[in-house]
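Hi! If you just cloned this repository, the fastest way to understand the data is to look at a raw example. We've pasted two of them here, unedited. The first protein comes first, obviously.
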Amino acid sequence: MNNKKRPTIATVAQHANLSVATVDRVLNARAPVNPDTAQKVHEAAEAVGYFAARLISQRINEKKPAYHFGFLLLGTSQTFYKTLSDAIVEQAREARAANIVCHVKLIHDRAPQSIARQIHQMAEHCDCIALVSFEHPLVIEAIEQVRQQGVPVVSLLTELPTRQPGAYVGTDNHEVGRTAGWLIAHGSHPAGGSVAVMLGGHRFLGHEQREAGVRSFFEEKAPQFRVLPPIVTLDNGAITEEATLDLLARHSDLRGIYVAGGGVEGVISALAATPQRPPMCVILQEPTVESRQAMRKGLVTLVIDSQPRLIAKELIELMVQLPGAEQIDPQRHRVLVPLQIVTPENI
C-alpha cells in the first residue's frame, strides 16, 4: 500500500513560501493576485505534483490580457533573422503578463510603398507592431498613420526618424560602430592604414550609425587610420565578395574591414581566395556557422553579436506595455541591448 500523502493546498503553499490564502486565491480566482506570485504558485503546484496544477495554469491564463502582435522582419537568407523570429515566438509563448498571438511577416519586396502597405495591413488586426525597415518618407508616413489609429509601433534593430519619439529595441548602433573601430585599431598594425566599412544601404539608419561610429572613433582616437568611403552591398554576398576583392587589389595598406550588415559570406569567400594579403582585422556582424568556421581558419578576427534572443525578450516585455499607453516615453520605451564580442576563443 502506498502511504505517500497526496499534496494539498498547504503543501503547495509551503513549497512556494506563500500563505494558504494566497494559493487559494489563485486556485479559485477569489481576488486579484500579482502575476509573478500566481506563476510561483503554479510552479510549486507542478513541483509537488498537486492534482490541480493544470487548473491553476488555466486560472492564470484566464486573467492575462490577450494581444495580437505583428512583426515585420527583413526577408533575407541571413541566419540572424531566422534566429530572431524563432526567439520572438518563443518569448511570446513564455510571456507571463499576457496571452500573445504572433503574426510574423517577412519583407521580401523592399519597395517603400510595399512596406507601407504591409504596415497598414498588419495594423488592421494587431494591437502592436514591431518592424525592421529602412528610412523612407512613405514608410515613416505609414507608421505615423497607424500610430494615430491607436496601434503602437516599435522600431527594431534600427531607429526610424518619426515626428514623435518612438519605441525602440536593439543595440546602440553608434556604439557598435565605435566598438568596431576600437577593435580594428587595437587588432591591426599600430602605424595605421586604410579601413573599409560595408553597409547594406544608406537608408538603413542602423548601418549608417555604425559607419558614423567607426569614423568618429578613428577621427578622435586613432587618426593614423583612414576610413574609406562606405561601400554599399545591399547585404548581397556576391556584391560583398566583389567589393572585398577590389579593396584587396587597390589598397595595399588595408588594415581593417568591418561588415556592418549582411552578405558576410562574400567577404569570407574573397579572403579565402586571397591567401597573399596584408595582415588585417576583419570584423563581421552577427555570428553564423560560416563566420565561426572563418574565425577558426583565421580568415575573420572577430564577430559582433547583437544578441537576438535577448532582443526578443526585451521586445516582448516592451510590447506588452504599449497597448493602451497614453504616450511613448522616449527613455523608458527605448531599450538598448548590449552587444557581445565573439572571438575564436569563445565560439
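Ok, and the second one:
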Amino acid sequence: MMSFELRERGTTAAREVRGGVTTFLTMAYILFANPSILAAAGVPFEAAAAATAAAAALCTLLMGLGANFPMALAPGMGLNAVVAFQVAGQTGSWQTAMGLVVLNGCVVLALVAAGVREAVMQAIPLDLRRAISVGVGLFIAFIGAVNARIVVVPAGSLAALAANPLAAVPPVAAGSLHAAEPILALGGLLIIAVLLARRVPGAMVIGIGAATAAGLLLGVSHWPGSDWLRLPRFDTMFEADVRRALDVRLLPVLLSLVMVDFFDTLGTVTAVAETGSLHDRDGRIPRLRSILAIDSISAVIGGAFGVSSVTSYVESVAGVTEGARTGLHNVVVAALFGACIFAAPLVAVVPAAASAGALIVVGFLMCRQIVSVDFNAVDTALPAFLILILTPLTYSISHGIGYGFIAYVAIKLLRGRPRDVQPMMYAAAAVFALYFWIA
C-alpha cells in the first residue's frame, strides 16, 4: 500500500477502492460497445469482447504500477468508430486497420521519447488547461445525457458522432420522459446529488447501484442466464497486419489517428490532474513522461489485441471525484476488467442509463474550474471559451483543443505580443491548422 504513496497524497485504501469501482461502473459499457462497433468491420464479436476486457485490464494496471496515476484505459470510443467505419473501409480489412493502430502507437511513443508530447503539455497556458478540464466536463455530461436518452443523437448512438468528429452535434433531439431510461438516470442523478450535498462517502457507487436495481425492476436490464461464466476466445489477438499498414497511401489516415490520439490524451490527463489536484504549484504533473509513455504503449497493445487504440478514459474523473488519487485505483479497475474476461455478461446488468446520472454529476463538478479562468484577459479567455464550448459540440476533445490553440496564437500575434506564446504552442497550432485544412 505504501508504494502507492497513499498518505502523501491524502487518501486511503478505502477511497481508492471506492474510486476504482466507480470508474469501472462508468466505463464498463465499453465491454459491449467496442465489440459491437468493431463487428461492423468484420471483427468477431465474442473474441473482441474478451480482448477488450484483457486490453483494458493490462493497460490500466500498467498505468497504475508504472505511473501511480489514477487514470484507467480502454479502447477509445471515438477511435474505435473511426477504425471500424472509416479506416477498415479504406484499408480493405480490419487486420490492416489494426496494423495502422499499432503504427499510430509507435509514432506517438517516439514523440514521447523525444519529449515532444510532454513539452506541448507544459507549454499550454494555465487558463487554457483549466478550459480543457471544463470542456472535458461538458463532454462527459453530454455523454451522460445521451446514455440517459435525455438527448437523442443521430442513429441513436454516439458512434454516429465519433465516426465524424468534424460534424457538429446537431441535429439532436430531446428524449421522451415517458421512457424508462431518462427516469432511471434522473433518479440516479438526484440520489448522487443529495448524497454529495450531505457529504456521504461513496455517493457515486450508491447512486449507480440504486439505478441498477431500479433498472432490473423496470426491465431496462436483465440478469444474465446460467451461461454468464464462459471460457474466452482471443481470435483477434496478434492479427494486426503492420506490413500492409506501411502502404504510403495510408499515410493521411495514420496522421489522423496520431493527431486524435496525441491530443485526446493531453486533455484527459489535464482533466484528471485538475480534478484531483495532482499537480505541483507550477501546474506540472509528476511522472508526466511515464503517464504519456504508458498511454502510447497502450495504443500499440490495443492494435496488437485487435480492439482498436487503447487510450486514457475521461470517465476516470468519476473515480477521482470519489477520492482516488493513486495507482491503487487502477489495480481495482484492472481486477474488475480482468474478471470480465470470463464473466462479461454480468456487466450488462448495469445499463448505460444507470451510470448516466453519475457522468452528468461528474461533468458538473469538473465545470467548477471555470471560476479560475480570468475572463478579463480576452486574449486567453476567448480561446479558453472556444475550447470548453467546442469540445462537446464537435464531440472531440482534440478538436476543441485545436480550435482554442489556433485562436490563442492568432490573437497574440495580431495583438503584437508574439513573445507571450511558447514555441511549442506555435508548432501545435500550425499542426492543427494543417490537419483541419486537410480533413
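That's it. A detail worth noticing about the second one: The chain is about 65% helix and 0% strand.
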